[in-house]
Amino acid sequence: MTRFEPVTAGFDQYVERRAAELYWSAWLLTGDHQHAEDLVQTALSKTYQRYGSFDNDRHFESYVRTTMYRTFVSWWRRRSWRSELPTDDAPDRSSQDRTPDTDLHRALAALPRLQRTVLVLRYFDDLPIRQVAEVLRIPEGTVASHASRGLAALRQSPHLKD
């Protein structure tokens, strides 16, 4: 047995237990099945080596989610992500098996990425404004204004009128 096997086993168990929740957050952020999977996989691969340095999975998850959100922010700052627009065309059926097409998802996809990110962190992952600001590296006032504008946009969204 090598010194890495216990860490690997613990990490594998963590991923098995928490992958669905990480994927859900990533899907809400990206609005795309493949990008969500890529985002989770990227965050997990970036954080794998540090798993053994955390005293519990709750602290490690905070680290993983911070890495995931920062990775997402760096991705959408790149030109290739800014040029993508949500569409009503569904990808092949196999890629949607775990991704229900919801009105909430369509409403979130219509928001600017930073508003969507703030709303997901703030209301789906239940982070306080201070922590959202730290994760995204933006001022707390900016988080509050994006949350306010995003909620106002969701209230007016035709996808959520029912």
Automatic annotation (TrEMBL):
Gene3D superfamilies: 1.10.1740.10, Winged helix-like DNA-binding domain superfamily/Winged helix DNA-binding domain. Belongs to the sigma-70 factor family. ECF subfamily. The lineage of its organism: Bacteria, Bacillati, Actinomycetota, Actinomycetes, Propionibacteriales. Residues 103-154 form the RNA polymerase sigma factor 70 region 4 type domain. Residues 16-82 form the RNA polymerase sigma-70 region domain. InterPro entries: RNA_pol_sigma-70-like (IPR039425), RNA_pol_sigma-70_dom (IPR014284), RNA_pol_sigma-E_actinobac (IPR014325), RNA_pol_sigma70_r2 (IPR007627), RNA_pol_sigma70_r4_t2 (IPR013249), RNA_pol_sigma_r2 (IPR013325), RNA_pol_sigma_r3/r4-like (IPR013324), WH-like_DNA-bd_sf (IPR036388). Keywords: DNA-binding, Sigma factor, Transcription, Transcription regulation. This is SigE family RNA polymerase sigma factor.
